[in-house]
């Protein structure tokens, strides 16, 4: 039996989170998308979640799912509506994504390659699966290095956990039954280096990344808020530039291109599965980052390399 990556503390004992049911639902957190505050045990290679105080919990973090979560939608359907048969021991996978903030308070996002089997063309922070027994921060830094070539010098960054996102792919039932189910831990990694210093070392992995961009807080605030409101296109806010400059990979070369800012503001429900946009989970994480920035813009919580979270 595969080792469970996401465990839920139910009735006083940890149980593996099963693939076919919403984690938020199994924790009894209520209807809707959340967010809800949950207690987290951040352990090498796995995550323990509880809706009540957890002995030795490393953090209390917001957990959210999209309003169109397919696992939640299946739970609301008549009896008999279910996923195709799954292996009985199939669980929920664990991933870590890195919100990398430069000293200038810009954040790095990457566009997933169009050849990716899951979530092609989505703008997301660097991140991916956690390996067996891998420290969660190490997993995020490894994915950052593998996707962008960036290796942060020891002692030159701080970090803290931001929040948890329940992710499925395809992301909604209208696009088919979900084939992937993750809990994504978003971590903020704050570099002491400027955007220019970091940019000089970026060497994207073309198999995973087709473009990247550094965005400023006022643009990110609009992106974070863009999932709300009507689905119809709206005029671009006056404080936003019509375009942002991205770096796009073209074979072995890179080229600076102007991307319409409106592309980053597209809503999930009004786009095709493979259409370029910012992922819903990324918008959630950017909202948490902006809240942190307002509270303590110059006061990092943890210092590299691997301090214990609060």
Summed up, what is this model?
By secondary structure, this protein is α+β, with helices and mostly antiparallel strands. Helices cover about 20% and strands about 35% of the residues. Its cofactor is Mn(2+); Mg(2+).
Write the layout of secondary structure elements.
Elements: E1 6-10, E2 13-16, H1 23-26, E3 36-43, E4 46-50, E5 59-64, H2 70-75, E6 93-101, E7 107-112, E8 122-124, E9 127-129, H3 136-148, E10 157-169, E11 180-191, H4 195-199, E12 209-215, H5 217-225, E13 243-250, E14 253-260, H6 261-264, E15 277-278, H7 280-295, E16 302-303
Parallel strand pairs: 1-4, 5-10, 6-11, 8-15
Antiparallel strand pairs: 1-2, 3-4, 3-5, 6-9, 7-8, 7-12, 10-11, 10-16, 12-13, 13-14
Helix pairs in contact: 5-7
Enzyme class: hydrolase
InterPro entries: NAD-cap_RNA_hydrolase_NudC, NUDIX_hydrolase-like_dom_sf, NUDIX_hydrolase_dom, Nudt17_dom
GO molecular function, one term: NADH pyrophosphatase activity
């Amino acid at each position: 039996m595969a080792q469970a990556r996401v465990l839920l503390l139910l009735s006083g004992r940890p149980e593996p989170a099963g693939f076919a049911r919403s984690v938020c639902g199994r924790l009894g957190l209520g209807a809707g998308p959340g967010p809800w505050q949950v207690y987290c045990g951040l352990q090498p290679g796995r995550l323990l979640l509880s809706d009540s105080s957890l002995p030795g919990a490393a953090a209390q973090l917001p957990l959210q799912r999209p309003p169109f979560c397919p696992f939640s939608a299946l739970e609301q359907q008549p009896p008999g509506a279910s996923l195709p048969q799954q292996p009985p021991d199939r669980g929920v996978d664990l991933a870590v994504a890195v919100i990398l903030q430069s000293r200038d308070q810009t954040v790095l996002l990457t566009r997933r390659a169009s050849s990716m089997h899951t979530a092609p063309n989505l703008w997301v922070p660097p991140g991916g699966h956690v390996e067996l027994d891998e420290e969660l921060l190490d997993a995020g830094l490894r994915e950052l290095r593998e996707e962008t070539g960036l290796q942060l010098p020891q002692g030159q960054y701080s970090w803290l956990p931001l929040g948890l996102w329940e992710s499925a792919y395809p992301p909604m039932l209208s696009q088919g039954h979900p084939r992937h189910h993750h809990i994504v831990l978003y971590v903020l990694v704050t570099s002491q280096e400027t955007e220019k210093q970091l940019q000089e070392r970026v060497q994207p992995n073309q198999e995973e990344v087709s473009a990247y961009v550094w965005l400023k807080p006022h643009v990110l605030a609009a992106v974070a808020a863009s999932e709300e409101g009507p689905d119809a296109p709206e005029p671009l806010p006056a404080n936003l530039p019509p375009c942002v400059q991205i770096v796009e990979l073209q074979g072995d070369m890179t080229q600076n291109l102007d991307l319409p800012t409106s592309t980053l503001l597209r809503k999930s429900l009004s786009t095709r599965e493979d259409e370029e946009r910012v992922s819903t989970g990324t918008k959630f994480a950017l909202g948490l980052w902006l809240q942190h920035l307002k509270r303590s813009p110059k006061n990092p919580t943890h210092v590299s390399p691997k301090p214990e979270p609060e």
